[in-house]
Amino acid sequence: MITSSGSIFRASVLCSIFAFVLAGFFAVRNISSWPARISYPDDESYEGVALAEMIHLHEGIPIYAGDAKEGFDAATYGPLYYLIGEHLISPANPSYFPLRLLSAIAILGCAAGCGLLAFWLTRSRLAACLSPIVFLSYGMATDHGVAALSDSVALFLSFAGFLLAYRLRNSRAILFAAPLMVLGFYYKPQYVAGSLAVLLFLVLEKRYWQAIEFAGLLAVCGLGGFALFQWIVFAGQAFWRHLLLYQTALLAWDMVWKALFALVILLLLPLMLAVAYLREEPNRLISCYLLVAVVLGLLTYCKQAGGIHYFFESVLIVSVLVPALLAKRRMVPVCPLDLVLLLGIMLFAGQWLTRRPPQRPDIAKYDAMQSFLRERFPAHSASLGIGPGDMLQAGLETPFSGLFQLAQLSHRGIVSDRDLVNQIHAHRFAVIVVHFDISQEHDLYRLNFYTPAILRVIETDYDLDKNLEMPAPLKEGPRDRFYVYVPRPVATASASSGCELFPGHVAHGQLATMRLGEN
């Protein structure tokens, strides 16, 4: 009997070591790519749009404009993201590095928070040490986590608020978590699972008065922040439209099946393990957080161009609960080999859709694009493209930084593309960069990134000048390239198009002097 117990103990220790090796392998593999990702000079996804919006804010351009007459910034992230980013970047040398570094620090903070919560749940050093490694082993914590976007810092603020609420859950001091959660909301409005979970928890606990107090404090802080941004920080702008209307308008219910598929691939197994732990160790607040995080992940994934990073909060909490389950199973005289094997499958699935880090050929392609733009077009010329980062770094102006959102909102009749169409016809833009050949493209998905009117006027009034290879981190598909369009000679373009001319015609090769916000 003693020998059997000793064998089980040794097997349990070996399983625990194996769990650390598995998680450590993926975590080290992912983190080792951070230097290449953080230092990479080019756009890796949506970063160029955000960078352009920060530069516009730095230049005094209204990024929360209510129309798209002379320019358009989508500005759908939280205002704190833009205000902080404005002070981290230099318009003279726009770089993603400081924003990516901030994101990396926030991701490490989230990992530390996972370890802290795991220890509070289990009082196990094994769970406290394994939980951060599991979180960092997920591909999204590296791929999207260290991007120059708002997600990581917003996730950290929201999770920090939830940790505070969990620690103070049995007292009225739980109210202190509300302001921190509101800060996370105003960094990126997506991350509200923590605050909703606390509200649900208080209601289920029949602490109705505290639930009212917590909801009231959230409302006071939220509405106070809204008033501050709408009427003071961004006075005279349509901040409310960008924060509320544009967010919901980008929802696409045809994405529901894709969201469910992503949930099954990425989270089905870890969710089963998380539920198994909560059945053995019931915890109402953690259960509420898990439920709300998954539901919100499904809903927010259903936005145009949604991605698996919308399940960030779900990944965060399962990274706590699965190690907690392993730590609990070690307390009984049973070797948790099956659980460790399931952990390995879970971590392997967690690499799904993780892009490889930038390579030297990607930097070479970026340098080639930069050299072409700098040599071909005068500094400060107006440019147009889905990814404005390359044009910005080449010294060009990008008045319409949110071209993708403009097209999607125009499809729904919320924002008109008419002024942009007229400006393209008037040759305001010295260069327009499209990721496909307009005359040859028939893929409806790719065409949907623009409006038919925009594509038609580019094809009518601009000529394809050159196409260049695109760095892999920026590609949406294998056929993506940079297709560079320049204004067609005026007489030819005017004769073949019936669009209204835009006052202040800027011919190809001239310095574009029209700036966003001028009347």
How is this structure best described in words?
- There is one protein chain.
- This protein has 519 residues and is mainly alpha-helical.
- Helix content is 60%, strand content 4%.
- The protein has a 4-stranded mixed beta sheet with strand order 1-2-4-3.
- Helix 3 packs across helix 4 and helix 20 runs parallel beside helix 22.
- The longest helix has 30 residues.
Number of DSSP strand runs: 4
The value of Rg in angstroms is: 25 Å
* Chain oligomer state: single chain
Low-confidence stretches: 496-519
Determine the structural class based on helices, strands and strand pairing: mainly alpha
The side-by-side strand order for the widest beta sheet comes to 1-2-4-3
Shape: globular
Fraction in beta strands? under 5%
Mean pLDDT: 91
Largest sheet: 4 strands, mixed
Please give the alpha-carbon distance between the first and last residues: 88 Å
> How are helices and strands ordered from N to C?
HHHHHHHHHHHHHHHHHEHHHEHHEEH
| Number of helical elements | 23
Percent helix: 55-70%
Summarize the structure.
This protein is mainly α and 519 residues long. The protein has helices at 2-31, 34-39, 47-58, 79-88, 97-122, 125-137, 139-143, 151-167, 177-187, 193-204, 208-233, 239-249, 256-280, 284-301, 312-329, 337-349, 360-376, 389-393, 403-411, 418-425, 444-447, 452-461, 490-495; strands at 383-385, 431-434, 462-469, 481-487. The chain contains 23 helices and 4 strands.
